[in-house]
Design brief:
By secondary structure, the chain is α/β, with parallel strands linked by helices. It is 44% helix and 12% strand. It is globular.
């Protein structure tokens, strides 16, 4: 039986446009308060226009929610699942109003990010605080812990990488994650957690040689971000086959569909590199089972399982954990 203190589940994600008319308003939401040149925003807008203005993330979140609802109905606890976004509809505040009107008083939130960083964890916690402040009598929301080293996530990613390697058995293995400003990385365990996930997956697919690289940088030119960029890495391995595993992303959304499947593949073609891109974990059965386990864990009905050397992340972050990146006046 479910813990009576929780009556619902909230899937908390980034959001994305559904058509061309929504692209610019969406990107303006994403970049509000950040000193990103408008020409860079328009460049990113072209990525969305390449797909008719529709981000893949929305349908992928709908698929995730359907799979999770089925898992909870079948295995319990049979809790309703809601969906709210940071940057586009359904926006989080609106979702909290719906939850309140439905009589929901306390929910656990699954954020679509496996790793600690300001944008991947702390900002989602801040989003919850801000959205609750907008909604009278809003339900309480408890965010589930970071899960980069949970057996379910590692099993799902290992399965994706293993399948990709069957297509190019001698390929070099590159893991990718979203680059972030160095000031953001230094305030979190983002890089350490990524390396640990890569190591755990590589052990399971029997590939001791691998490399972690970064993609999708979006900041001002003068601001240092995590490197090496995937383009630089591909130029360095010119002539070899490559499997690219986007371990830093949970679904095949825009940063995967455009930055890897379009731009990286075009570069590989130019360099004469055969490339296979591993799928993200998406709705892999181990991933969906993991979300259910995290819910049970928060209810006190399951053990806190992890792999590797770091142990489970805390349910509650310290006040100084994953601060927002510093921005100088010149940026």
């Amino acid at each position: 039986m479910p813990d009576p203190t929780y009556d619902s589940v909230l899937v908390l994600s980034f959001g994305g446009p559904e058509n061309e008319s929504e692209v610019i308003p969406f990107l303006e939401n994403v970049l509000r308060g950040r000193n990103v040149p408008r020409e860079r925003m328009l460049e990113v807008a072209e990525h969305y226009y390449h797909f008719g203005g529709k981000s893949p993330i929305n349908d992928q979140n709908r698929e995730l929610i359907r799979a999770l609802q089925e898992e909870l109905r079948r295995e319990g606890p049979d809790l309703p699942v809601y969906w709210g976004n940071r940057n586009w509809h359904p926006l989080l505040a609106g979702t909290l109003r719906q939850m309140r009107d439905d009589g929901r008083r306390r929910a656990v939130a699954f954020a679509t990010s496996a790793f600690s960083s300001y944008s991947g964890c702390r900002q989602y916690r801040d989003d919850i605080v801000c959205a609750r402040a907008e909604v009278d009598d809003a339900p309480e929301i408890d965010k589930l812990r970071i899960f980069y080293n949970h057996p379910g996530f590692i099993e799902a990613m290992s399965d994706r990488v293993r399948h990709a390697l069957t297509q190019l058995p001698a390929a070099q293995l590159l893991y990718t994650a979203h680059s972030v400003p160095l000031s953001m990385a230094r305030g979190s365990q983002y890089v350490e957690q990524l390396n640990e996930s890569c190591r755990l997956v590589s052990e399971r697919v029997n590939r001791p040689e691998w490399r972690l690289v970064y993609q999708s940088r979006s900041g001002p030119p003068g601001q240092p971000w995590l490197e090496p960029d995937i383009g630089e890495a591909l130029r360095e391995i010119q002539g070899s086959d490559v499997v690219i595993a986007p371990i830093g992303f949970l679904s095949d959304h825009m940063e995967v569909a455009y930055d890897l499947d379009t731009e990286a593949r075009q570069l590989c073609d130019e360099l004469g590199i055969r490339m296979v891109r591993a799928r993200t974990v998406g709705v892999h059965p181990s991933m969906i089972a993991m979300i259910r386990e995290l819910i049970l864990e928060r209810m006190g009905l399951a053990q806190r399982r992890t792999l590797g050397k770091y142990g489970p992340a805390s349910d509650d972050c310290a006040a100084d954990c994953c601060p927002a990146p510093a921005r100088s006046a010149r940026q």
